[in-house]
């Protein structure tokens, strides 16, 4: 894992910072800072094309689409805007098709650039559209949720949901540029902000105990959206994610650790119906369950499980799973992408700051569900 860059405790905004994902001819910069959306320097040297389509949703577009349109219009003759319906329940084939409808109706050619302006839902769908329209057009991620800035906009996973499983249809397809304007987080509802913190916290137990301790020391400031603290949280999260993706772009092994909490979390999301619990909320609770499993497998102690659970609670995240019933949890986890030949695999913490993927005895998994979830 790369060493931590200057951790921050001050409360002034940091200058813009650029990281790079090194993937040969698919390498790209991640720009992190405040006010990047309107700064011409952000877009200088970006991919050029006569047409661009900003893909956003009905919530985010009114805040930021016109500003992005103005900022990028120096680089494109025509900029179109498409506002999709908002919500995880719209991460479907039907909504994806609205993007293809718009691209074809506007006669967009194979050089057209797609800009994903929004959270992870918009980013995942716009990325999948970019991967498949005319067999691939370039795209830029402009994430506007904390979750998207620290996770989903980086690394090239794109997908839509299927009624039988989350993110089951998709492609690995890297963006050309990621622009994290921290100012856009000022309009994010508190519940969404907490959901994003779950993915920030995730990097601690699996990769960086110093970062976990830093989050613990600064959780109140982060919750208050202190600009300097946010800048450090986004930057350190992206550094860790970039390191993992650079070493295992297509998840043949290492990258799966980024799914810590996701096996249980996806079951919660699908079991309740997409959109009931936010993705980050489900992942946060799923991390408690994955840590309880790690403890039952003798890998970490109860004090460590409690430490992470308390931090999640301080970030106002749910830590008790919904009462879906043990059988239903097991059934839902069978369709996890990590499952092989019907055997469910889990990301467990093998020691604080390090994670591995492994199977677990079904009886132990049942104990976790019974211990960590409400009664059915
Ligand atoms: P989201 O995209 O649904 O956004 C959350 C809500 O906030 C939405 O209502 C959205 O309209 C609103 N919003 C977004 N930005 C806003 C802003 N600046 N101001 C006000 N409102 C704003 O949810 P999310 O948490 O960003 O992303 C979750 C999705 O990301 C899930 O579908 C998940 O599967 C996916 N994901 C993908 C990856 C990946 O690697 N591709 C990683 C993690 C999560
Ligand atoms: N969010 C998990 C990954 O990108 O691999």
Describe this entry's structure for a reader.
The chain is globular and about 60 Å long. Helix 10 (279-296) crosses helix 13. It has a 7-stranded mixed beta sheet with strand order 1-2-9-6-5-3-4, with helices on both faces. The chain folds into 2 domains: 6-187, Rossmann fold (3-Layer(aba) Sandwich); 190-373, Dehydroquinate synthase-like - alpha domain (Dehydroquinate synthase-like, alpha domain), CATH 1.20.1090.10. With 376 residues, the protein is an alpha/beta fold. It has 13 helices and 11 strands. The structure holds nicotinamide-adenine-dinucleotide (NAD) and glycine. Nicotinamide-adenine-dinucleotide (NAD) binds at residues 57, 59-60, 63, 86, 88, 91, 118-122, 124, 144-145, 147-148, 151-152, 155, 157, 167, 184, 187-188, 192, 195, 279-280.
Could you write a compact summary of the structure shown?
By secondary structure, the protein is of the alpha/beta class. It has helices spanning 40-43, 61-72, 93-105, 120-132, 146-152, 190-207, 209-223, 227-247, 262-272, 279-296, 302-314, 326-333, 362-372, and strands at residues 17-21, 28-33, 51-57, 78-84, 113-118, 139-143, 157-162, 165-172, 177-181, 346-351, 354-358. A 7-stranded mixed beta sheet has the order 1-2-9-6-5-3-4, sandwiched between helices. A two-stranded antiparallel sheet has the order 7-8. The protein has a two-stranded antiparallel sheet with strand order 10-11.
